[in-house]
Amino acid sequence: MPVTIYDIAREAHVGIGTVSRVFNNRPNVSDDTRIRILAIAEKMHYQPHASAQALARKHAYTLSVVMPFFTNYFSIEVLKGMQDTLAETGYDILLHGVNNTEQVDDFLLRGMKKGRVDGMIFVSMALSDKHTRQILEHKIPVVLLDTYRPEFDSIRVKNYEGAFHATQHLIRLGHTRIGMINASMRSFPAQERCRGFKDALQESGHEFSDRCIVSSDNDKQDGFNKNAGYNAMKELLERGMPRPTAVFVSSDVQAIGVLSAMEERGLRAPGDIAVVSYDDIELAKHFHLTTMHQPMYEMGELAIRKIIHRIQFPAEPPALESFTPALVIRETCGGNKEYSQFDDAQVQTT
Amino acid sequence: MPVTIYDIAREAHVGIGTVSRVFNNRPNVSDDTRIRILAIAEKMHYQPHASAQALARKHAYTLSVVMPFFTNYFSIEVLKGMQDTLAETGYDILLHGVNNTEQVDDFLLRGMKKGRVDGMIFVSMALSDKHTRQILEHKIPVVLLDTYRPEFDSIRVKNYEGAFHATQHLIRLGHTRIGMINASMRSFPAQERCRGFKDALQESGHEFSDRCIVSSDNDKQDGFNKNAGYNAMKELLERGMPRPTAVFVSSDVQAIGVLSAMEERGLRAPGDIAVVSYDDIELAKHFHLTTMHQPMYEMGELAIRKIIHRIQFPAEPPALESFTPALVIRETCGGNKEYSQFDDAQVQTT
DNA sequence: CTGAAAGCGCTAACAT
DNA sequence: ATGTTAGCGCTTTCAG
């Protein structure tokens, strides 16, 4: 029923080889026959068969992107960067949104199924040893985004440094009782940001107690959501210790929740409690959040370039590339507003 | 290099047919050999080859989802509904984010490439006659989501009715000078919502002038973004006509921008200007927006079920399924708050 | 420059 | 119950 190269070969009185050559832009076809074949193909509405090509070429031109469920801006921006880059390449992506860890197994299986995809990109998820081993065994090209594993190409933003910087900013502003609202510690970025926070405090000789940190245990999006921020802030305020004068929040979405919780008690930022958060999502500007800007779109772009490179050169040693987040100063923790680069914000790239 | 059914057949001293049967859970294989084959496959890390299967089965278990760039909540929620449903089915989706109309051609081509996908879902985009013809010619199963074409299965929300209802709400609240902030008229939903708005006004005998409507011409996301709302509201306020006492905004994201623009001039909702918007995204609650709730997640779910059904029964006549949006009353346009269903909101289903 | 033929890895119909 | 064989539609030698 569907038209194949055989059909058009017969029609054009040539061999299928010649037809194939034409469609693959190979040399060694006379302009004459090339044109004739193209015309016939057009007339017959010929479409090459993707699976057949993939089988013969041993190349599916498909990538799998596995990410924790992409409801937050970070994932979306990353995805967007990927898509725009993809457009130029002829690759397509299979989107694999992960709700929980068991699903990773499933997607890993799908991705590793021979011939399905040429490579996989894992976003923001700590890969277990077991998964790592499986991937290595099957030799499927992988790049990690917003996570790290020495075995694979990794693209990270310096979460530790970013958190450190953000906290330092608070300290320089004169704050001494500083709390942190963190996402779920299952998340790799959350872990790193927590470390950065602690170290910044310790380095500057601040007293520090784990009671200052509230980690969300909200499953949804690893705790990177508004409600988690709201609840965590409420808890922090109720822990019955002297109220912090500043908090570092592990993401902007959470910070929005934090702001809500504060508002409920009549507290304002920065007056009562200064707030610094992380990500610089689109809405951050709207909430005047001072936050750490992450080059999400660019990371998505790079991930695609890297995976395609890796597919071409599987043997090269894995490389780590790091993006440094930049502090965007708006209004939620006071401070100056002299320079302006990102819209209404001042940026320091440390 | 990679292990195939031939390898495992040789190892197990059986024919490849038997091996194939085992992996396809077909009968007519003795438990004995079945177990033996499974064991050997396991040992050799056998993975079936997706492209080969697709070629032989004439079925790729892949869907293409084409949507205008998914940076807004609507798309994301829809996507999420799709993904969750997909998990049970064994299908994967190729995500095709469209930035502009020319790209549709590209993706259409990719989608129609034989064997690539078993079906396509188009979200929130008016399909041109040309595209429609192409799809029909290639007989590829299609379902439309948030658009309509008699030629295909369509899932819509009643945009017209929703807008009508929202506007009516404003009218019942006693408003007479009502404006509308619309997205780009290129977007189908925007067109429908505009019609609903106009008709509601006319039906109730309100004077109506096109000057009350500001349509965004912001390209990004067809004008469904915060900035577009901000700019449009600014323009409306500057048109030098008596200030409207209420506005209907074609989406929540835009409404957030509208609120900003108002705030800048010291105007508050609902006191100075009442605001009703559309979508009921997650953040709508945070902004206390009175808005039309759309069952986005459910629509995504249904789209998947429909396309899979359509793939199985290509001959059935196309069906239209409609979701009715519900008015969620919060605070941006006053009114009562007696009942509560969606969180803090009252819902009327008309 | 072009045709023929051998795969790519798997499914499915047909024998046995 | 199991082996054999013929495709699925395309790419890619290898002759000519």
Description:
Two copies of one chain form a homodimer. The first copy, chain A, is of the alpha/beta class and 350 residues long. Chain A folds into three domains: 54 residues, Orthogonal Bundle (434 Repressor (Amino-terminal Domain)); 125 residues, Rossmann fold (3-Layer(aba) Sandwich); 155 residues, Rossmann fold, CATH 3.40.50.2300. Helix content of chain A is 43%, strand content 17%. Chain A contains 13 helices and 13 strands. In chain A, the strands form two sheets. In chain A, strands 7-6-8-9-10-12-13 form a seven-stranded mixed beta sheet, sandwiched between helices. A six-stranded parallel beta sheet of chain A has the order 2-1-3-4-5-11, sandwiched between helices. In chain A, helix 7 links the parallel strand 3 and strand 4. In chain A, helix 1 crosses helix 3, helix 5 packs across helix 13 and helix 10 crosses helix 11. The C terminus of chain A is likely disordered. At the A-B interface, helix 4, helix 5, strand 2, helix 6 and helix 12 of A face helix 4, helix 5, strand 2, helix 6 and helix 12 of B. Chain B binds a DNA duplex (16 and 16 nucleotides) through helix 1, helix 2 and helix 4.
CATH 4th-level superfamily of the largest domain in chain A: Response regulator
Overall domain count of chain A: 3
State mean pLDDT of chain A (0 to 100 scale): 88
**CA radius of gyration of chain A:** 26 Å
N-to-C SSE string of chain A, H for helix and E for strand: HHHHEHEHEHEEHEHEHEHEHEHEEE
Determine the oligomeric state from the structure.
Answer: homodimer
